[in-house]
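Risk register update: the risk of archive-format incompatibility is retired. Evidence:
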Amino acid sequence: MVSEFFDSLTGIYQLMRFHHVSYEGIASIISRIFPRGRDVIYNAFTDSIEKAEMPPVESIWIVHYDEQHPKRGRTQKYRLSLVDGITGRVIAEELHDRKDKKTIENFLKNT
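Archived output:
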């Protein structure tokens, strides 16, 4: 029963972090149920994330294409990125010297 209780608390931590509640805020709220420090909450949360099984990316329905223009040294570079629109995970990302049609087509074909 104790294990199930702490698993339930961890689920609450995850839900609060999903809604951008700080660890100190979570500790303040959880102290009404069962006093826990923010470091204990942080460790429990990170442990639960490490143990979580991520499903493999099989079919992606929404893909976002993004271009950024970082400067490396004094030369202009172009970062081309494909991002899964649902999960926000980066599918592919490359840095190129130019951003012409052929470069973009090759990037999309190779990903």
